[in-house]
Design brief:
- By secondary structure, the protein is mainly alpha-helical.
- The protein has 14 helices and 5 strands.
- The protein has 2 domains: about 220 residues, 3-Layer(aba) Sandwich (Rossmann fold); about 80 residues, Tyrosyl-Transfer RNA Synthetase.
- About 55% of the residues lie in helices and about 5% in strands.
- A 3-stranded parallel β-sheet has the order 1-2-3. Strands 4-5 form a two-stranded parallel sheet.
- The relative contact order is 0.14.
- Bound molecules: tryptophan (TRP).
Length: about 325
């Protein structure tokens, strides 16, 4: 008899911040990696809407819509719901139960030490005080991950501290209650961090991002206004492509990027030409994604159905894990 060989599982997620629309940094840092892993692995792709509460408690009405936008970008970028489970964290309540139980085995010092806690606390605006929930952010993330007992977690390098604490929590749980959780692997994306239009890291909060949902015109306007090498004043001054935001875009999206870099460094081309070519290259690369995005925007019912089905699939694994956890902890 032929035995079905089950694929190894992966879990990953993104938080719906702001409008939820994803940018090239999200695409190249994580999403494209997930799309490429779909055949080899059974992937659970979560939109972590509860995590968004840690920093936008004064604007909860925007979270639902932003979560759907994230899901639309997942699908537009090529995640295939026939292979991959795409779902909202808040639709699988087991995330909350496991978070509670893991919080009991996590020493306070571990969460206080996570670098993203201090960073997020310092970046809070308005009336907001750092909440108990914000401190627990990495424990909730550990629950997101361990609930699926995955082989690994495909993420960008910025998530490494969160994966480390996840492993520590899993080990401590296993030490106290017996082996329930695997030791998870980092499945890091090859792409280096995407540079934003101002040559800092591309990030929604810096306002330096190009979005999958931007129009071709918006994309071109943003790139024409981007930061270039400040020592290259005239067209024939030699450039330094390494620190130039436009050269970085050419590097990722322009099939002829080597020529553009050589000519730039040799002072054989100006920034305006570089920008035009980068805009064309980015728009060409995003064309199929944007087309798909438009179709999905017209059919939100379909997106909601995909999320329901994804949550059903996620719940199957999640409830199995919770049975193991409760049994190990002698809970009813
Ligand atoms: N912390 C992640 C981020 O900022 C989001 C996240 C929450 C996540 N839970 C996760 C990522 C589980 C991977 C796996 O992007």
């Amino acid at each position: 008899m032929i035995q079905a060989v089950s694929k190894k599982r992966l879990l990953s997620g993104m938080q719906p911040t702001g409008t939820g629309k994803l940018h090239l940094g999200n695409l190249e840092g994580a999403l494209r990696n997930w799309v490429g892993l779909q055949d080899e692995f059974e992937i659970y792709c979560c939109v972590v809407d509860w995590h968004a509460l840690t920093t936008r408690i004064e604007d909860t009405e925007g979270i639902q819509e932003a979560s759907i936008e994230v899901a639309i970008d997942y699908l537009a970028a090529g995640l295939d719901p026939a292979k991959t489970a795409i779902f909202l964290q808040s639709q699988v309540k087991e995330h909350a139960e496991l978070h509670l139980l893991l919080s009991m085995v996590t020493p306070l010092g571990w969460v206080e030490r996570v670098p993203t806690f201090k960073e997020k606390r310092d970046n809070l605006t308005g009336e907001a005080d750092a909440s108990y929930g914000l401190l627990g952010y990495p424990v909730l993330q550990a629950a997101d991950i361990l609930l699926y007992r995955p082989f690994g977690v495909p993420v960008g390098k910025d998530q490494v501290p969160h994966l480390e604490i996840t492993r520590e929590i899993a080990r401590r749980f296993n030490f106290l209650f017996g082996d329930v959780f695997p030791d998870i692997a980092n499945v890091l994306s090859e792409t280096p961090q995407m540079m934003g239009l101002d040559a800092r890291k591309m990030s929604k909060s810096y306002g330096n991002a190009i979005y999958l949902a931007d129009s071709e015109e918006e994309t071109a306007t943003k790139i024409m206004g981007a930061f270039t090498d400040p020592t290259k004043m005239r067209k024939d001054d030699p450039g330094h492509p390494d620190g130039c935001a436009v050269c970085a875009l050419n590097r990722v999206y322009n099939p002829n990027w080597k020529i553009t870099w050589e000519e730039d460094a040799a002072g054989l081309r100006g920034c305006v030409q570089n920008k035009r070519e980068a805009a064309e290259a980015v728009n060409a690369a995003l064309l199929p994604i944007r087309q798909k995005r438009k179709d999905l925007e017209q059919d939100r019912g379909e997106v909601l159905r995909i999320l329901e089905t994804g949550a059903d699939r996620a719940r199957e694994v999640a409830s199995e894990t919770m049975s193991l956890v409760r049994k190990a902890m002698h809970l009813p």
